[in-house]
Amino acid sequence: MRILVTGASSNIGKGIVARLRAAGHSLVLSDLDPLPDEPQFAGLEFVQCDIQVGFGLEGAAQGCDLLLHLPAWHGMHSRVKTEADFWRLNVDGTFWVLQAARSAGVRRLVFLSSQTWHDHYGKYGFTKRVGEELCEYHRRNHGMRYVSVRPHDFTPWGADYLNRYGARLLYGGVDREDMLDCVQASVRHLEPDLPAGAEPEAVVVDAVRPDVFTEEALEGWEDDPLAACERIFPGSRELLERYAIDISRRPSVVHGIGAEAIGYAPRRHFGTFLEELRTLDAKGEQAVAAMRCPY
Questions:
Q1: Which of 52, 67, 199, 262 is deepest in the core (most CB within 10 A)?
Q2: Residue 213 to residue 184: CA distance in whole angstroms
Q3: Is the dihedral of CA 236, 238, 243, 247 positive or negative?
Q4: What's 169's DSSP letter?
Q5: The NAD-dependent epimerase/dehydratase domain covers which part of the protein (predicted)?
Q6: How far apart are the first and last CA of the chain?
Q7: Which domains does the chain have, with CATH numbers?
Q8: pLDDT of the chain along its 295 residues, tens only?
Q9: CA dist., res. 154 & res. 152, Å (int)
Q10: Are 107 and 145 in contact (CB under 8 A)?
Q11: What sign for the dihedral angle of Cα 117, 119, 121, 125?
Q12: Helix crossing, 11-22 with 176-190: angle to 10°?
């Protein structure tokens, strides 16, 4: 397929462009600023435009089969961006991109939403609610098929591999590679043509970590987190103590929707982190200390 990727230099954009290229798709990239000089962008068509006003989008969408819409201000921007900023990018930007797709005859959409959809009167969550409503409006009125992906926290973790990445997986964090898997599965899901006369579909997917424990398994966590974790992940106590990983809060149990509809299954969680940490630990504590966020 020929795919228009808006927000191509974003966190997800940088990762998914390489994957879509490898899968054989033809890509048109768009962003507010010129793309960084990175291998995944080399040789690809680029259209520089500001989606908040829409100029240039119709031309970028011409001849495309699918729109992958990524740009947004997120919760981490709440202190520095106003309500007007959030509205212009998250709502106006989504509207103009969808209008450009409609004009160009694009009838497939993957929309990057957020779990803050549930916080629908928060500054961020409200705009994602409206964004999903815009997707549904275009489905009902213009035949747009779409998958709305609602990820949880997958922000970069810098040098704090043990807590900002590892322990975060107990509290709702999702691995970026799982996020990329979800977006790629969403594209694959929309690839086949609809049967003649079929209703354009709308799929919502929660991009969250896999459920690897239950509420029952977490009983007594607050009283003795290390013992509770050891029951669920045998052999974890020694690593947790040696590296002073903070698991004092009771973990969250997550239940996602929509993953089966697109053939998506997250694979990375606190247990896989512990396996990776154990492998690094065998090489020495310096190998653990050297871990840096790759994105």
A1: 67
A2: 26
A3: positive
A4: G
A5: 3-152
A6: 26
A7: 2-151 (3.40.50.720)
A8: 999 999 999 999 999 999 999 999 999 999 999 999 999 999 999 999 999 999 999 999 999 999 999 999 998 888 999 999 999 999 999 999 999 999 999 999 999 999 999 999 999 999 999 999 999 999 999 999 999 999 999 989 999 999 999 999 999 899 999 999 999 999 999 999 999 889 999 999 999 999 898 999 999 999 999 999 999 999 999 999 999 999 999 998 988 999 999 999 999 999 999 999 999 999 999 999 999 999 9
A9: 6
A10: yes
A11: negative
A12: 50
Q: Look up residue 92 and give its amino acid.
A: D
Q: Can you name the residues that pair with 111 across neighbouring β-strands?
A: 69, 148
Residue type at 99?
Q
Q: Which residues pair with 108 in a beta bridge?
A: 145
Task: Say how far residue 200 (Cα) sits from the centre of its chain.
Answer: 23
Counted residue by residue, the chain has a size of 295
81 CB-contact burial (10 Å; exposed 0-12 / middle 13-18 / buried 19+)? middle
Tokens matching residue 10:
């974003």
